[in-house]
Structure formats: C-alpha cells, structure tokens
Predict the 3D structure of the following.
Amino acid sequence: QGRLVESGGGLVQPGGSLRLSCTAFGSTFSIYTANWYRQPPGKRREWAASITPGGVTNYADFVKGRFIISRDDAKNTVNLQMNNLKPEDTAVYYCKIWGGDYDGTWGQGTQVTVSS
C-alpha cells in the first residue's frame, strides 16, 4: 500500500534543466535504495539512476555527467536534478523502491518534454 508520488516535470528547451522530486508514503523510506526510471514515448521503461541508504549513487550511461540523484530521508524524498537536457530525454519519469510495500505498484510519473 505504499505510494510514490513524482512531481517537477514540464517543458524545457534543449540544454535546460529540471529538478524532479518523489515523495514516498509507506514503509520506512530511509532503509531502501531509491531509483529513477524513465519511459520515452513508444519505448519500454528504463532505469536511469539509484541512490542507496548510505548515499552511494549509480547512473545509466545516458544520464551520467548530466543528472544527479539525491535523497532527503527526513522528508522521505528522492530527487533528480537534470541538467543539459536533450530531446531524447523526453519521457515519463518514475521513482521506484524495490522493497517493503512499494514493490507492487508504480506511481503515475511526471512528464518531461525537451523541445525548442
């Protein structure tokens, strides 16, 4: 019955930046690795970034050097700072925790559109 609620998406020009946020409601957030995924139009969902409870980050190659994942356990949030956005970054972005009562469902995601 956990919920993950994404926000912060929008329309941005190529080269611009956006900051996405995800708030977790449910099982203790601080003990789980948190992830960001994205789903471009017509494609399958793909993993983008993760951050462990200890703050260790990992990134997919297509975002490395441009995106930064962070977390604030006091606020039960995970964030994704997206810089130097490209048209191919256009996608619905989702956060995900594989554990506790977050396993069963995905949030609705937040739309990011990169276009001039």
